[in-house]
Design goal:
About 40% of the residues lie in helices and about 20% in strands. With about 130 residues, the chain is α+β, with helices and mostly antiparallel strands. The longest helix is centred in the N-terminal third of the chain and has 18 residues. The model has no long low-confidence stretch (mean pLDDT about 80).
Length: about 130
């Protein structure tokens, strides 16, 4: 079975501009996509309850968060406070739907300068 990876960056922009259309499509993909081999990565810098809606959260098998501004944003992601106290630089909390507890993990940190150098390298050879 083929696997399809869908990456949505700045998910909040879609939810603000095209809420009704985007919400129904994303809900359908998140519900039925796992059975069809579709994997979703959804990223936003605005994790509020009007953007991270409960029907989408219910159909995503895992969720992760880096540092957020306040406990409301923390609650919107994993229904738990504490993300505002993370130290940054790859420090994150992670949760599987099957797990009640969140796990504190350290991810790879990539600086902005490293990203720029990779982009410049790719521009030269593409």
């Amino acid at each position: 079975m083929p696997r399809i990876l869908v990456i949505i960056v700045e998910y909040s922009e879609f939810m603000i501009d095209y809420k009704s259309e985007f919400e129904s499509v994303l809900d359908r993909i998140s519900r039925l996509g796992r059975a069809a081999g579709i994997h979703l990565i959804i990223a936003t810098q605005r994790p509020t309850v009007d953007v991270v809606i409960s029907s989408i959260k219910a159909n995503l098998p895992c969720r992760a968060s880096f540092t957020v501004v306040d406990s409301r944003e923390s609650n919107a992601i994993l229904n738990k406070a504490g993300f505002q106290r993370l130290c940054g630089a790859g420090d994150m909390l992670f949760s599987l739907n099957v797990s009640i507890e969140t796990e504190h993990v350290q991810t790879a940190y990539v600086s902005e300068n490293e990203i720029k150098s990779v982009v410049e390298f790719m521009k030269q050879y593409s």
